[in-house]
Specification:
single chain; 467 residues; 8-stranded parallel beta barrel; 3-stranded antiparallel sheet; 15 helices
C-alpha cells in the first residue's frame, strides 16, 4: 500500500499527510460484516449519549481477519481495565462486582464481541480472575483472550506471571499475548532488560511454538526508537497495540508518537493494529460545544464518542478497537457503532481536523485516566482530579477572569463538583511533589506540575478575587 507526501520528524513524533492521501493510507471503506456468533433475543430501543439508538443488532458486528492466524475478530474489543466494583459485604474496601461483569460479558458475546483484553495489573490485580470467571461460562471458541507480561524484572517472575494468567483466566492457551507497554522507562535499555536479558522473549517464542500462545505481539507507549527496534527484529509479530485516535493521529503529546507514523509502519510490515485509547481517556467523548455542533450538523443522532470510534475503526489494518466499558449503555452504543461500521469519508476527516485544532489549543491536561499512576502513596486520586478539571475545560466552563459570564455560578459549580468528585484528603492540594508517579505515566504528563496548576486554580476560585 503506497503512502505519499509524508514528511517525517520522528524525533518530535510529528508527521504530516495530505488529505487526498489519507484514505489511501487507512484503506477506508473495506470493512465487512458477518453473522453474529450467538443468538439471543435482542433488546428493544436503548438510550445513549446520542439519543435513542434503536434496537441493538445481534448479527451485524463488523469483523476483521488476522492475516497470520485467520482469526476473525470483532472490530469492537472489550478492554477489561475498569470492571465494575462494589463495596465488600464486610465493609472492608471494594471488590469486583462479578454479577455485573458476567452480565456485560454475556451481552457483549451475544451481540458479536469476541475479543477481551486484560492484564495482571488491571483493576487492582483482579481483572484476570473476574474476566476468567465470566468467559469460562461460554464455549472457548466463542472468544479470544488477550493478556500481558507486565512489570517483570526476572525470568522467574515473568514465567510465574504467565502461568498465573493461565490459571486466573481458566484457559490452557492464550490467544493474544503482549509484551506490555514497551517504550517506557529508558527506552531500548529498559526493553532489553525486561525481555531480552531476562530471556523472557525466548520463553514466549517457545510457548508460541508449542501452541500455548497463539499470537505474540506488544503494546507500545513512549520512545519511538523502541517501536522501530522491535519492527526491525527478525520476528513476525502477529499484532501490535498502539494508541490511535483523531487527535493523536498528528498531534500526539508527551512521549507518545503520532499514530499516523505507527500505523503506517505496521502496514508496511503487515502487522495488524490493535487500538487503545480511541477516546483519549474519555476526552473525545466530551468535546467543546462548538465541536459537537459541527458533528451534529453532519450526523444529528451520533455522539462525539461514536465519531471517535468510527475514526479508530475505519483503517483496514485495524484488527480491533478496545474500549473499557463499565456501563451497559456504553457497551450498547459501541456495539451499535460497529454493527455495522460506517467508515469515515474524506469530508468527515476534514471536519475532525477542525475539531482537533480546537482540542490541541485547549487547556486540557493530557490524562487518559489509565490509572497507571495509582495508587498514590499520599492518597491523591490523580485521575479524578484531572478528569474533573478536563470536564470543565470541555464544557467551556474554565474561568479566565472574574468578569466572565456567569462567573459566580460557574465558580460554585466547579468547587462543589470538585468536592463531590474528589474527597478533600485526595485533592491536588495534598500533593507533596514526591514525583514517584512521573515514571509510571505512559503519557509522560508532568503530574506534579499539573497538580500545582489545578490547585492554584482552585485556590483562586476560593478566594473570590479578580483574576
Amino acid at each position: 500500500m503506497e503512502k505519499k507526501n509524508i514528511d517525517k520528524d520522528i524525533n518530535k513524533g510529528k508527521n504530516t499527510i495530505h488529505r487526498r492521501d489519507f484514505l489511501k493510507v487507512v484503506g477506508a471503506g473495506t470493512a465487512v460484516t458477518t453473522a453474529g456468533l450467538v443468538g439471543c433475543k435482542p433488546d428493544r430501543s436503548r438510550i445513549s449519549a446520542a439519543g435513542t439508538l434503536g434496537e441493538i443488532p445481534t448479527d451485524k458486528m463488523t469483523y476483521r481477519t488476522n492475516p497470520h492466524t485467520g482469526d476473525v475478530v470483532s472490530l469492537l474489543g472489550y478492554g477489561c481495565m475498569r470492571w465494575p466494583l462494589r463495596a465488600r459485604a464486610d465493609g472492608n474496601g471494594q471488590e469486583v462486582d462479578q454479577d455485573a461483569v458476567n452480565d456485560l460479558v454475556d451481552y457483549a458475546i451475544a451481540h458479536g464481541v469476541n475479543y477481551f483484553d486484560t492484564a495482571p495489573v488491571y483493576v487492582q490485580g483482579w481483572s484476570e480472575a473476574a474476566t476468567g470467571i465470566a468467559l469460562s461460562r461460554h464455549s472457548r471458541d466463542k472468544y479470544f483472550i488477550a493478556t500481558k507480561s507486565s512489570r517483570n524484572n526476572t525470568y522467574e517472575s515473568g514465567v510465574a506471571m504467565y502461568n498465573n494468567s493461565m490459571k486466573e483466566l481458566q484457559v490452557d492457551y492464550i490467544d493474544y499475548y503482549l509484551l506490555h507497554s514497551v517504550g517506557g522507562g529508558d527506552g531500548i535499555p529498559t526493553y532489553e532488560s525486561r525481555f531480552e536479558e531476562t530471556r523472557l522473549l525466548d520463553f514466549f517464542k517457545k510457548e508460541k511454538a508449542a501452541g500455548r500462545i497463539r499470537n505474540l505481539g506488544f503494546s507500545f507507549h513512549g520512545d519511538v526508537a523502541v517501536f522501530d527496534h522491535l519492527l526491525a527484529m527478525d520476528i513476525q509479530w502477529d499484532f501490535c497495540q498502539i494508541q490511535l485516535n483523531y487527535q493523536d493521529w498528528q498531534h500526539a503529546t508527551g512521549r507518545n508518537v503520532n499514530a499516523e507514523y505507527l500505523y503506517t509502519e505496521l502496514v508496511k510490515k503487515n502487522i495488524p493494529a490493535i487500538i487503545m485509547e480511541p477516546l483519549l481517556g474519555g476526552r473525545l467523548a466530551r468535546v467543546p460545544q462548538q465541536a459537537l455542533m459541527m458533528m451534529k450538523e453532519r450526523r444529528p443522532n451520533d455522539s462525539a464518542a461514536q465519531w471517535a470510534f468510527r475514526f479508530a475503526g475505519t483503517p483496514e489494518h485495524v484488527l480491533t478497537v478496545l474500549s473499557g466499558m463499565v456501563y451497559m449503555e456504553h457497551l450498547q452504543e459501541n456495539i451499535y457503532t460497529y454493527a455495522p461500521l460506517e467508515p469515515l469519508q474524506e469530508t468527515d476527516y476534514a471536519m475532525l481536523d477542525q475539531v482537533t485544532e480546537m482540542l490541541v489549543d485547549s487547556d486540557y491536561i493530557q490524562c487518559t485516566t489509565c490509572e497507571y499512576c495509582m495508587p498514590c502513596k499520599y492518597g491523591l486520586d490523580i485521575p479524578r482530579i484531572f478528569a474533573h478539571y478536563n470536564n470543565c475545560v470541555s464544557a467551556g466552563k474554565l474561568l479566565k477572569s472574574s468578569t466572565d459570564e456567569n462567573y459566580k455560578k460557574v465558580r460554585r459549580d466547579f468547587l462543589i463538583g470538585y468536592d463531590r468528585t474528589v474527597p478533600k484528603l485526595r485533592q491536588a492540594a495534598r500533593c507533596t511533589e514526591c514525583e514517584e508517579c512521573l515514571v509510571k505515566c505512559p503519557q509522560s504528563i508532568p503530574i506534579t506540575q499539573e497538580m500545582r496548576r489545578v490547585d492554584a486554580y482552585v485556590e483562586l476560585l476560593k478566594k473570590q478575587e479578580e483574576f
